[in-house]
Fold:
Amino acid sequence: MSGPRSVTRSLATILLGFETIVVFLGAVVTLGLVSVATEPGPVSPLAVIIGGVLLCLAMIVLIGLLRFRWSYPIGWLMQAIIIATGFITPAMFFVGGLFAAMWTYCMITGSRIDHTHPDQHKEIE
Structure:
């Protein structure tokens, strides 16, 4: 069993876990909206299913990779991708923006706490 995690890693893990659930539910809503649309939309229901599953799987993999320093920029990229899903379902601009703001807060606050008490937290590799 390893030592204690950094605060930044803990906050990022919690946020990405909740974000994965919300993105999955957003994909389900988008699938419903695309399926019942009377006019052909920009994406097919199959593309929504594949995109939603891949995005959720990527976030789950990212949670496991947070022990490495290089994974945090990938987290920023994931936030941008989630905001970009708003081009398919406009509500995701708002949802993605909220999670990007929370990600920013977690990165700043976690880093500040980790640097204030470096002896209490295991540094990420």
Notes: The helical segments are 7-36, 45-65, 71-84, 91-116.
